[in-house]
UniProtKB/TrEMBL annotation:
MF terms in GO: DNA-binding transcription factor activity; sequence-specific DNA binding
InterPro entries from the UniProt entry: Homeodomain-like_sf, HTH_AraC, HTH_AraC-typ_CS, Tscrpt_reg_AraC-type_HTH, Tscrpt_reg_HTH_AraC_N
Family annotation (Gene3D superfamilies): Homeodomain-like
Taxonomic placement: Bacteria, Pseudomonadati, Pseudomonadota, Gammaproteobacteria, Vibrionales
Protein origin, superkingdom: Bacteria
Organism: Vibrio mediterranei
Sequence ranges assigned to domain HTH araC/xylS-type in this UniProt record: 184-280
Keyword annotations of the record: DNA-binding, Transcription, Transcription regulation
Name this protein carries in UniProt: AraC family transcriptional regulator
Amino acid sequence: MHKLNSFSRVAEREYALSTGSLNLLYYDLPKDFHDEYRSYDAPRLCTILKGTKSVSVNQSQSFQYNRDQFVLLPPNSNIYMKMPEYTKALVYEFDEQMIEGVSQRVADTLEVDSPTALESQSFAVNSIDKRIDKLHTRMQEILREQEACMDFLIDLTGQELVFELLRNNTCQSIISNHRSHPISKAIRIMNSPMGLKMTLAQVAEEVGLSQSSFSQKFKAATQLSPKQYLTQLRLQSSKQSLNKLSVTDAAYEAGYDNISHYIRLFKNAYGLTPKQYQRSLIHGSH
């Protein structure tokens, strides 16, 4: 698993071990390293494998935690961290589908409430109990041994971790809040087939924000403007469709009515026109 030596979002996206439902981030940070950290649009379970972190969440009073504790961050948290000593950390970033899937299946048993609005300073600091420690250790074994069906085993262990977090009232509030967060809802909408064809004004209206507020909050959470994010989604969707649809149909399915505009965007993103990309598929070069 790739070691991250900074909190760069670009590096996180490139080097996270992702199953589609869970991102795992492995940080290897020297003594006295310090920087600002973000949780972006998903809850993060922060654990320490070795060392200590000094942390301030959303300008809270600074505190330290070690390998016997975890910190659960809600989406869009701002954190300042300093490493008093050489530190290794493993962070779990839970996808909406994983949270929703576990929550629905155990809602009656655990009495999972409807999400309520959290204050921006909400976060959890807890001791790692035996059940969470067992799952955390199991995850490290899966990563270390590169087991067959690794993605399946990571997701399975991740689901159990979500279940254990839902058993804790404070953690449950943070986990459940993710479902109602306006930017999380917007991302969920934009990733749907219908959302690809919606205007940004329509998406903003769906999540109850003005366009200016939506744009500001979205960029703060994702480091991309809503337009940039939706363009990426549309182009990725059309790229997947080009192996079975014509260029015109692929563009339309991805929400583009202006074919010339679509072709220009596609070439800027991938260095090939859609038609050239289709030919490369036939010749097996992609």
